[in-house]
Amino acid sequence: MKEAKAHKGNFLKTYFKERKQVGALAPSSRFLVKKMCDKIDFETAKNIVELGPGTGVFTTELLKRASKDCRIFVIELNEEFYNFLSKKFSDPRIVLLKESADNLDAILASHGAEKADAILSSLPLAVIPDQIRKRIIIKSYDALREGGIYVQYQYSLNAKKLIEKKFGKLKMGFVAINIPPAFVYLGIK
To answer: Which one of 15, 37, 58, 108 has the largest count of C-beta atoms within 10 Å of its C-beta?
Structure first.
C-alpha cells in the first residue's frame, strides 16, 4: 500500500511538472496492465520493448511473466521516472535506458538485438510532436520481427489512423476501469 501511494504521488508530481512527457494523472490500473500484457506470447518472447514505463506498473508485470532468458528494454525519456525506475528494478533481464523512443533501431542494435517480439507502449502520443510521433510508429514497426506485436493504449482514438498507416487494420479493446478509461490498440507486423 505504501509503495502504491509513492507511485501515485511521484506520478502526479511528474505529470504537473512534465506535461509534454506525461499523459496521465495516475499510473495504469491493473485491468489495463492485464489487458495489454495478455497480448504478449511470453513463452516465445526473447526481446520485449516497453516505451514510456512511467513508474513501472507494466514493467513489474512483464517481469512476472517473462522467461528467464527474455530481455526487457525499458525506454524512459523523463529523468525523474528514469531515476525512480533505476532504484526500483535490479532484475538482470531489464535493460533500462534514458532515451527517446524514436531511437529504437539504434537502441536495439547497440545491444545486439536484431528484432523485438513485442513492443508495449504507454507513450502519450497526443502530446508528442507530429514528426517524432510518426518516427516512433515507423521505427516500432521496423524493430518488430515478422509476426511481432505492437500494443499501445491511449485515452482517445486520435492516434488510430497514424498507427494503422504502418500496421494496417488494428485490433481494438477498451478498458473502462482505468483513470481515465483507455483504448488498447494491437498491431501485428
So the answer is: 58
